[in-house]
Amino acid sequence: MKLTINGESKEIKDGISLPELLVIENVEQPDMVSVQLNDEFVRQDEHKGITLKENDSINFLYFMGGGA
Amino acid sequence: MIKIPQSVYDEVIAHALKDNPIEACGYLAGINGEVKYAIAMKNTDASNEHFSFDPQEQFDAFKKTQKEGLRLIGVYHSHPETPARPSEEDIRLAYDPNVSYVIVSLAGIEPDVKSFIIKNKTVEIEEIEIILES
Predict the structure, then answer these.
(1) Is B88 within 8 Å of chain A by CB?
(2) For residue A28, what are the domain limits?
(3) Domain assignment of residue A57, yes or no
């Protein structure tokens, strides 16, 4: 199925879950990314329950912070 | 190497000075290692020792640059009282291996700007080429 991931159109296997997608996208620490699915934020505790569908748009960005 | 136009370089320093003593932070938008402009972000920690981006602002910046055919190729933040080197916290929280981490130190007489690549908690200093503009 076709998904748009961070703006890029990609062919991904049908029925993939959001956590599986983040693994495919080489996200080593999924708890440190913010995810938007079709422009809606997805809470961390909701990731596991989400199965992606044809033409979904997923954006993920790493937490950005630091010290001094 | 990261290439930064003189005007953007100056703008980042100006942001650091304006927010001092709070840490200033933002993105650097560009492509192929060349910065086009800076995006000042809110430091949600409002601290002189920490910074965090607001996720909604992050997505807004991401979508804006994407529409322009650009990417978020760098992240900058200031160190109001410490040198321009990644702190332990900076390294621990550097989750994105694909960006340049630019630090502006205000600890000395003059601002000091350095850039780093941080992957798997390993830090490498990165050359900054300032693009002079007419």
Answers:
(1) yes
(2) 2-62
(3) yes
Closest alpha carbon within chain A to B61: A61
Q: What is the pTM of this model?
A: 0.93
* Top-tier CATH class for B2-131: alpha beta
The token duo for B104 is: 């502006």
- Model ipTM value: 0.87
CA torsion sign for B63, B64, B68, B70 is negative
Residue B110 contacts A, CB cutoff 8 Å: no
Size of interface A-B (CB pairs under 8 A): 68
* A68 domain residue, yes or no: no
Q: Number of folded domains in chain A?
A: 1
Tell me the pLDDT of chain B (134 aa) as tens digits: 999 999 999 999 999 999 999 999 999 999 999 999 999 999 999 999 999 999 999 999 999 999 999 999 999 999 999 999 999 999 999 999 899 999 999 999 999 999 999 999 999 999 999 999 87
Vertex B28, ends B23 and B29: CA angle to 5°? 150
Alpha-carbon distance B36 to B27, whole Å? Answer: 11
